[in-house]
Structures are given as C-alpha cells and as structure tokens.
Amino acid sequence: MGLKEKISSKKAVVSVIGLGYVGLPLAVNLAKAGFTVLGIDMQEEKVNKVNKGMPYIDDVKAVELKKVINSGNLKAVNDFSVIKKVDIVVICVPTPLTRHRNPDISYVKGVTGEIVKYIHRDMIVILESTTYPGTTEEVVKPALEKSGLKAGKDFYLVFSPERVDPGVKDKEHVSRNIPKVVGGLTKKGTELAGLFYGTIVKKVHPVSLPRVAEMEKLLENIFRVVNISLVNEMALLCDRMDIDIWEVIGAAATKPYGFMPFYPGPGLGGHCIPIDPFYLTWKAKEYDFSSRFIELAGEINEAMPHFVVTKITYALNNSKKCLNGANILVLGVAYKKNIGDIRESPVLKIIDMLLHKNACIQYNDPFVPVLNINNKIYKSVELTAEKLKSADLVLITTGHDAYDAGFIVKNSKLVVDTRNLIKERNIKKVFRL
User: Fold this and answer.
1) Rounded to two decimals, what is the model's pTM?
2) Residue 330 lies in a domain
3) Does the annotation mark 238 as catalytic?
C-alpha cells in the first residue's frame, strides 16, 4: 500500500515528537481521527501521565485523552526507535531564544539527530516548531540526509507551522476550523502532507517551499507584536494626556473597515509573540538587513512591566502609601485569560520587580495553583472579601472570566487594572493602564 493510500485509509502510523502545548493536542486529534499515533517525549513524567489519561495541557480534556489511549490509537513513549515503524513524523519541540536573544534550535537538532538513525524510504518528516526561514532546508534536510537518503526523492520533508490558540472557546477558532499552511520541499511532499492534515482540519493552504511557510508563521506573529506595541505606545501617551485609551479603542472599533482593535496590557506573554519575531531579526542580519519595526516593537512591549510598576507606585503615593512594605494582591499570573500557561508571562517580571522594591506579594490565579519565583514557592490564595480588604493594592494582570469586577471594586482599597476588567469609569480608587 502506498503512502497516499495509507493516509487516506488512516492506516499510516504517525509519530508526534514533543508532547507539549502543540504536540499533545495534535497527537490527540490525530488519534481521534483514526490514526495510530506514537507520541515521543523525553520527559518520563509526561509519558506516564499521557498513558494514564492524565492531561497536563488545558486544551486537552481528560475524557478525550482516555478515550484514545484506551482505544489503542495513542501511546506515549520515550524511545525514538519506534520511528522505524512509522510513516509520518511530526516535530513539535520548543524553539526558545538564548539569553542573547538568538534562536535556540538545539531541540530541533537533537531530534533530527535521533530521527536520522531510523529514517526510511517513503516517510514524511514534518517540522511544526516555529523557527527562522531556512531552518527546514538548511538544518533539518542535511541532518536527515546523513542517512544516505535524499529529501524529496527517498523521503518527503515539509514545514507546517503550528496554529494553536490556548484556551479558545470560540467554535470558529477550534483547531479543526483553523486552516493549515503546508510547504514541502517538493510538490509531492506538499500534496501528501496536505492530504494528511486534511484529515483533521477543514482547509489546507499549500505554499511553494518550506521557507515560505516558515516566513508566513513569523509574519502572523510579527503582525500581532507590532500592532500590540503600537497600542501600548498609545496607552503610554494617553496616560500622560489623561485620556482613557480603552475608550479611544472602543470608539475606533466602531469603524467597519480599515481598523482592527488591539488592546494594551502589562506586557507580552506566551511562547510565540514575545519570542518568534526575534528569529527573523536574527536571520535578517545574514542579509545585511535591519528589521527596525520588529526591534522597536520589542523595546516598547518590554517596557510595559516597568510602566505597570510605575503606575502602582503612583497609585500608592496618591493614597499616601509607600511601595516599600506595601501588601499587594496580584490577580492572575497566566499570560492570557482562562488558561494556566505562564510561559513568558509579563506578570512574573512585574512580581519580580515589586519584590526587589520590598513589596509584600500574594497572588490569586484559579488556573495556576503554585508559582516559583526566584526559587521561592508561592501558592495561590483564596480570593475572598477579607483578602481583598487586607491588601494595600490589588493588581489585575490577567482578566480571567472568574474575576467579578464588582466584587473586586467593592472590597478593595486601591486597584490598578491593566486589563480593563473594571468597565465602570470615574471610580477614584481604580487606576487603569
């Protein structure tokens, strides 16, 4: 049976490498579609939890994970040798930045170093990890060809960027409804990968080359980071001019064309937005090109946690209180509402700065029960009227739906709201971003 027939009949065996925020939901969706999926992860704790039907990702439901585990469609392992018997390998490993803000593709290199040991003819290798344009062709391809097999001839090599919106409740934006971009080294590889992804998404958009797909993913994120930085800069200016930026955005959003609302916040969080654009700034230097918009956007967004601390200091001073020794209750440490993901959360930086200024910090987050800051463990406190009343200042940094704005205002002495959770205006004790 050929690879095309195997994919169409769901007889193809799939391996998803990296069972994190991208890999685990993908593995579950493929297993639900009827494929036999072998998930590979080197963290034994993750492997054990998956095989016991215990999800550690918000977007994976226990009932769905248990169903595909019990059916035998999904199994997690920490052994790369299973690749010998798979037809499709999907790489979903982290691609962070180094301390000098250069791309760290060591995970990609490590994984390809394992795949090459077991790669065989008529296999599809797909990279989903966000990276700089050229990675698939310049890094993954030569690494896999050390096997003696040739990409595009003996096996197919493809880049297809992940598109995951954590905590999404909008049915229009669940994974099946999000189009998948696919760029193969050859047309045949693109067609096969498109057929494969077409079993779990409604629409596949093919592009000519892997580097086009790699650039496309960066453009998605750069579009967001530049527009967020613009509105953050507007928020800083509006603060000086005593203009409500939230009211300004609301008014601008009434225009039915030519405007898309973005909102200010305490900084950028998550794996993609604060990190991915810098892959391109790094790669652009190879072409003697300065990506000034991206670098400026990064500077503005990185300044937002400092502005929040300044706003807190101002609010306390306005009530004749000092930041040193102030009891501050932080509401929300996740980078986005209604999820427990704290990766690159700006709230962590804000808390760290407040601690360095000798503030006393407690936090509440219904999705993050425990937090480690500078090797000190903090536990989420219960959000009660007494807890709010005991705080010198309440800082809203994540707008979880569980937070009742009226309850917070009623029981708090001072509030700094960075998410526009409190819609009522002209409350003297509420200070906005």
Assistant:
1) 0.91
2) yes
3) no
